[in-house]
Amino acid sequence: MKTILISLDTMRADRLSCYGYPKLTSPHLDAIAADGVLFERAFAADIPTEVAHTDVFTGRLGLQTGVVSHGSPLTHLSKTVEWLPTIIRKAGYQTAAVDNLYQLKEWFARGYMYYMNSVGGTRWIDGKTVNDLAKEWLSEHHADEFFLFLHYWDPHTPYLPPEKYVPLFYPTEKDPYDPGNLSMEPAYNHRAYPFFKHHHYDLLGSVTDMQYMNALYDAEVRYLDDLLAELDGYLSELGIQEETLLIIFGDHGESLTEHDIYWDHCGLYDTTVHVPLIIRWPDHLPRGHRISGIVQQVDIFPTILEAFHIGVPQGIDGKSLWPLVKGENIGTQSRLFLSECAWQAGRAIRTMDFKLIRTYDSGPFVRPTRELYDLRSDPGEIRNLAECMPEVADEMESALTHWVRETLGDRDDPMFVQLQDQGLPFRRRIEEILKDVGLSWGEWVQNPDRHRFDMAYARRKA
Predict the structure, then answer these.
(1) Whether 67 contacts 56, CB under 8 Å
(2) Judging by DSSP bridges, how do beta strands 37-43 and 274-275 pair with one another?
(3) Contact 120, 129 (CB under 8 A)
(4) Using CA atoms, how far apart are residues 449 and 433, in angstroms rounded to an integer?
């Protein structure tokens, strides 16, 4: 049994050609989907990266494990929680990862016989480095039975694709630094600007065209697709492509200006929680099969264990995807519970038809406490119906509240522990940047003037 689990960090489902995007961002992923199974409605129940991957490797939602925040020093995962690589290793298989999540939290290195850190190079975490390390390991272990985890970060900010990919998505005759183009002004005057200037914008220069930023994201996706084609070609060269179970998923998506979110992954809207999930296993799966029902990332855990013929632990939230593949069901869920606690703190409940979002702390954003969207007529989640459809909103919020209480039992809610003890992790990061240049959060929120920040920032650097 050979399995490769691939995480595509910050991969938004509807930006892939196989999910309906009209631009050719993913020709090789399209080919993999054509040879396997594509899940049309796969979701990240907990976002962003730290909590999403914890869900995948435990088969449990964050409210069960207590891991609900990204970047919080309060968060810890007990060693008593079953961990996918550990289970597989104990069953006698080789386990390896090319990844850097260990730098976020120690538990991400658990269970691996070989853990190869992918940080480094000229592009922070370049998928080329991931490929090189993975190919070297595969060359030595391709005859073994193994579980290999690969984590690609290429679509993540900062968007720095190789230059040759940009003209595929941005006209060469346009100037992305044209001073007459003011489309970037909303992003530059947003309350989150200090964070993105420090971590992103300074690397790109004074971009004025918002569409250029979106084109850079698409170029990153296309670059990653070529890297996946290279890796897949190597599997073929080794003669193990046909026998290898390949599972590819996104940990979360990316908002590309929607909902006042500029090139980041927060908000429980589908731009961020709807992710790709594609499985290929020649001779075991139907080719070109598309599954329309709702599934979630925790479903990967039991699916992999069943493929290895390993018993699935009791009490997990995930449900195997194999019955769906066999046509015995159309989805693992009729409704999803969603959560975030990084830039914002909130929870949501989503069905095929409606989504209710309950915001507890909006961070640097302006949000109503309650949002309701009819996904049938408004898939872009633009028209908030919470006030004109209060019965539906009340019913969904009641279901959300009941789920939280039932799941927690007598335990404290980890989201509110975080908010009361330390606040939002990413707001703290903005506060640290503001403090460094002599500004307070309070005065910045009242007047998020980027020119004032830029002057203070320049003085500090000088």
Answers:
(1) no
(2) antiparallel
(3) yes
(4) 15
Half-sphere CA count of 450, side-chain side, radius 13 A? 17
* DSSP-assigned letter for residue 120: B
3-state SS assignment for residue 263: strand
Write down the residue that tokens 């890297």 correspond to. Answer: 227
Instruction: Identify which of 301, 296, 317, 249 has the alpha carbon closest to the alpha carbon of residue 36.
Output: 249
Tell me the C-alpha to C-alpha distance, in Å, between residue 257 and each of 153, 185, 261, 418: 20, 12, 5, 28
Statement: residue 257 has pLDDT above 90: yes
Rg of the chain taking only CA atoms, in angstroms: 22
Q: What are phi and psi of 243, to 5 degrees?
A: -95, 0
C-alpha distances in angstroms, 317 versus 33, 37, 332?
A: 26, 22, 10
Residue 131 near residue 173 (C-beta atoms within 8 A): no
CB 35, CB 284: distance < 8 Å: no
The answer to whether the Cα torsion of 222, 225, 230, 233 is positive or negative is: negative
CA 126 to chain centre: 17
Residue with tokens 């891991």: 67
pLDDT band, residue 456 (cuts 50/70/90): confident
Tokens 């990653």 label which residue? 224
141 Cβ contact list (under 8 Å, min separation 6): 94, 96
Residue whose token pair is 């307070």: 440
257-292 burial, b if ≥16 CB within 10 A, otherwise e?
Answer: bbbbbbbbbbbbbbbbbbbbbbbbbeeebeeebebe
Cα 372 vs. chain centroid, distance in angstroms? 23
Q: Is beta strand 146-152 parallel, antiparallel or unpaired with respect to 274-275?
A: unpaired
CA dihedral for 7, 8, 9, 10, sign (positive or negative): negative
Distance CA 214, CA 225 (A): 17
Beta strands in 209-260 (DSSP E): 244-250, 255-256
CA 103 from chain centre, in angstroms, equals: 17
Tokens for 15, please give them.
């930006």
- Tokens read off for 435: 């403090």
User: Considering Cα of 286, then 290, then 291, then 296, what sign does the dihedral take?
Assistant: positive
Residue partners of 13: CB distance under 8 A and separation at least 6: 19, 42, 250, 253, 274, 275, 276
Bridge-based pairing state of the strands 46-47 and 336-341:
parallel
pLDDT digits 0-9 by tens, 299-354? 999 999 999 999 999 999 999 999 999 999 999 999 999 999 999 999 999 999 99
Q: Report yes or no on whether pTM surpasses 0.85.
A: yes
Q: What is the DSSP string of 70-96?
A: SS-TT----TTS--HHHHHHHTT-EEE
SS3 content of the chain, % helix, strand, coil (to 5): 40, 20, 40
